[in-house]
Amino acid sequence: MYRVEKYMDKFETYRLYDSSNNSFFEVVPERGGVITRFVYSGNEILYLDKETLYDTTKNLRGGIPILFPICGYIKDEKYTIDGREYNMKQHGIARLYKWDVVKTDADDSASITLKFTSSSETREIYPFDFELIFTYILKNGMLTIEQQYINMSEKNMIFYSGFHPYFYIENKDDALIFVDSDVCYDAIDKKQLIFDGKIDSKKPEVNLIFESKSNECHAVDKKRNMKITLKYDEVFKYVVVWSLHDKEFICIEPWMAKPDSMNTKEDIKILKPGEDLKTVFSISASME
Known about the structure:
By secondary structure, this protein is mostly beta strands. It contains three helices and 25 strands.
């Protein structure tokens, strides 16, 4: 019922199957450990711009990029730790480096465990020794991401992580987003607004930040009669909804903190030397 396969595209790619419901997902470790595809019951759940996957000079647009050690931007791409200034681009470093495959399994689920470890290169951007261990699990059609963030430094480590799932929505005018708050911050227009669940697809860009309360949200793709459900632990305090008018995706992103928190220190996570943080995020789909 479950199996794991490996093949070469431009990059080594792992495909993990749940044949009981015609579902699978794909992972490309070399491109930031990213999940590039998730198919449920034969339906594509994620959007992927393959050109940005193949071109390593471009930021990957699609799949489920990992955001670490920050979510969003830092003002002027600069922050200070222990009196030294560092530069970090939007969404951090985890999505820019190769992850190592630790193991795969296909017993009672299809799973793959990946690891990303600090290096002399990452320490020039983010001055901590760390190890990230993520296990992607497909079982009964649900995709689960188990995460472990480990501080291997001799000092306290600060970070805030998140995910950037691109959900394939062909007709955004006929889609609904259900977040557990109808009030959000419009990061484009710089104001609070009431959200009615509909994306204004005529706007060049939509960028809304919600404070999560129930740790669960949904998207309904009416054209395909499909409901997509995201569940995440309470450490993910925010949900960002982002979309571009000319692209067939809506991003629904669980974040631990808001943009520029490396400078504001709001909601940042602090791990003491040797400490770790374990948390879970899952995506499932159902036909309505």
